[in-house]
């Protein structure tokens, strides 16, 4: 199967959301009351579209103000099956070009990630999940590095980095090199900029990332029984050092 990698456009947002929902099925079950209705998918896609448009406007305004490079910028990519035209994989990245000041507590950042309230979201489970990711992030990219047992809310700065927010490949197309193709853009950009690459990996994704030079920094497990679900959800913070530095 031949695929092409290209930026996600506004018209692709809904299909990209569905790919992520299917590829990250276990996480989706924690975040949402499944199955999602078509109306819910439309609302979530509209929310992501709004965020994309706001980011594009902000980027254009920075350019108009004569700023050469933003402090951070988001990038989204799609993998398309050239035979069918179907989106079969997606990735979302944020590049933090400068060290990032931390102005909110873990709790405040977790709450901010949940706004606005969207339909079929498991509010308590999503909050706990966001807290899990916030803990991983602060432990992995804090400046200066945290000491053992140090309060996570004492972190005042996070390292500049290339951050992989999402990498998802449709289950029917996994094992065909699509994940590697979507990953490569971020790795190349991190090497070009001389920045670390950071992500939170599921158990299933970890072997791929280890293959491409990521090393584990911390593990965080969310027990799901308090939310009426079985089992647990484990994520590993992983960091890759750049191969070249400017």
From TrEMBL:
It holds the Pfam family Acetyltransf_7. Residues 101-236 form the N-acetyltransferase domain. InterPro entries: Acyl_CoA_acyltransferase (IPR016181), GNAT_dom (IPR000182), Trichothecene_AcTrans (IPR052523). It comes from the Eukaryota. GO terms for molecular function: acyltransferase activity, transferring groups other than amino-acyl groups. Coiled coil: none annotated. This is N-acetyltransferase domain-containing protein. It comes from Talaromyces islandicus (Penicillium islandicum).
């Amino acid at each position: 199967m031949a695929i092409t990698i290209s930026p996600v456009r506004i018209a692709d947002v809904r299909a990209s959301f569905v790919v992520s929902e299917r590829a990250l099925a276990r996480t989706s079950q924690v975040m949402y009351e499944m199955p999602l209705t078509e109306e819910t998918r439309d609302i979530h896609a509209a929310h992501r579209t709004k965020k994309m448009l706001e980011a594009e406007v902000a980027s254009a305004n920075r350019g108009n103000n004569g700023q050469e490079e933003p402090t951070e910028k988001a990038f989204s990519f799609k993998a398309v099956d050239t035979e069918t035209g179907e989106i079969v994989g997606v990735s979302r990245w944020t590049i933090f070009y400068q060290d990032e000041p931390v102005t909110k507590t873990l709790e405040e950042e977790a709450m901010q990630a949940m706004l606005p309230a969207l339909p079929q979201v498991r509010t308590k489970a999503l909050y706990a999940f966001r807290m899990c990711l916030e803990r991983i992030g602060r432990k992995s990219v804090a400046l200066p590095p945290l000491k053992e047992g140090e309060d996570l809310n004492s972190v005042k700065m996070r390292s500049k980095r290339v951050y992989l927010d999402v990498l998802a490949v449709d289950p029917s197309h996994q094992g065909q090199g699509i994940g590697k193709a979507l990953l490569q853009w971020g790795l190349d950009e991190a090497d070009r900029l001389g920045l670390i690459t950071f992500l939170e990996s599921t158990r299933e994704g970890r072997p791929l990332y280890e293959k491409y030079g990521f090393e584990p920094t911390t593990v965080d497990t969310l027990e799901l029984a308090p939310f009426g679900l079985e089992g647990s959800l484990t994520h590993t913070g992983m960091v890759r050092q750049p191969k070249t530095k400017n």
